[in-house]
Fold this sequence. Notes:
The chain has 310 residues and is an alpha/beta fold. The protein is 40% helix and 17% strand. The protein contains eleven helices and 13 strands. The model has no long low-confidence stretch (mean pLDDT 91).
Amino acid sequence: MNKKLKILVTGSNGFIGSKLKEYLKKDKNLEIWELTRNKNHMRQNVNFIYLKSFLNDFDLTENLSSIDCIIHLAAIAHNNSKSKNDIFQVNAKSVEKLAIQAEKAGVKRFIFLSSIKVYGETTHSISFDEKSRTNPITSYAQAKLYAEKKLIQLARNSSISYTIIRLPLVYGNKQKGNLKKLIGLLNFRLPIPLIKEKNLRSIIAIDNLNNFLYKCIISDISKNNIYCLSDGKDISLSELINLIAEVKKLKTRTFYIKKSILLYIFKFIGHQTTFDSLYSSFRLNSNKAIKELNWRPLLSTEEAFRKYFN
């Protein structure tokens, strides 16, 4: 009988983590472990490792001794109001610390979910890939890139390998963030402003991400590699609105406004990042993942929206 691969998922109660652990449990050759802050979980299921907080000092070396692979999802979100110090401690220093402890414990793989934001906040006409110059602007993005560099540095001098995945917006049912707000505006028939300049943004369905993460677990090709990932079809705000309206059978109410005026309004109310995420372009090229891992998205963007939001 083959020995099961023990996979530890951090951030397993979040949107991505909760979907991922259910997806991975379908493979009976994998044994899924979770990092939890709830001690009651320890009594319910042996496949939990307890950690009160990534903000506290911790040493999980002994707990990680039987783990084969860590998928690190736990992070403070980019739109969170936490302090810069907290963001750096959780999204950067704790990743470095966890990876060092994992290496000491004999863990062989460390899969890290990074962000498209390591390239900046917008791409304009550029489609970023793994070789593109990084230019993190926010504390969140700077912390993600710091963690990436520390993982690469650690792998050079040890037996642990890394896989870094740079992601755009991940969407699915029961998600949070700007897409949920946009759907809410459409549900309430509220008018949505558009600009005449067409924007294109990369996004990825949770099913497509989970499938790629599974491929990374079982493939040696993904070791010590960085991948950019998306559905493969970039989408504009107006296309996104029309797609949601079609799936949910809603009538859209949109109007055009001058970009400079709309930007001023968003800046005035302190939401320029929301403006950027809705009205600017931000694109990723997934060719490396497609060629090296023979990966294809399970769902097209249209199919995913019909599955999640119908």
